[in-house]
Amino acid sequence: xxxxxxxxxxxxxxxxxxxxxxxxxxxxxxxxxxxxxxxxxxxxxxxxxxxxxxxxxxxxxxxxxxxxxxxxxxxxxxxxxxxxxxxxxxxxxxxxxxxxxxxxxxxxxx
Length: 110
Hints:
The protein is an all-alpha fold. It contains five helices and no strands. The chain starts with a helix and ends in a 7-residue tail after the last helix.
C-alpha cells in the first residue's frame, strides 16, 4: 500500500514538473530580444517598467498567466492609469509577450 502511494506521489511530481513554471518573471535575454526583433536593452526597460509600475494599482500579474492577445488588449488602458508614455507601453508589451513565450517555450518570432 505504501509503495502505491509513493508511486502515485512520484507520478504527480513528474507531471507537475513537466509543465511551465508560471510563477517566474523572466529576465530579458539576448535570445528573447533576437526572437522579438528588438534590443535586449528595450526588453530590460520593459521588464523594469513592469517591476516598477504593475503592482501600484493591483497585484502584479505574472507574464505567463495572460495570453499575449489579452496583454495587447488591456495594456493601453492600464498604461494610461500608470501614466506610461507610448515608448514605455510598447516596451512593456513586448517584454510581457516575450516573457510569456519564454515561459511556455514558444517560438517568439513574428
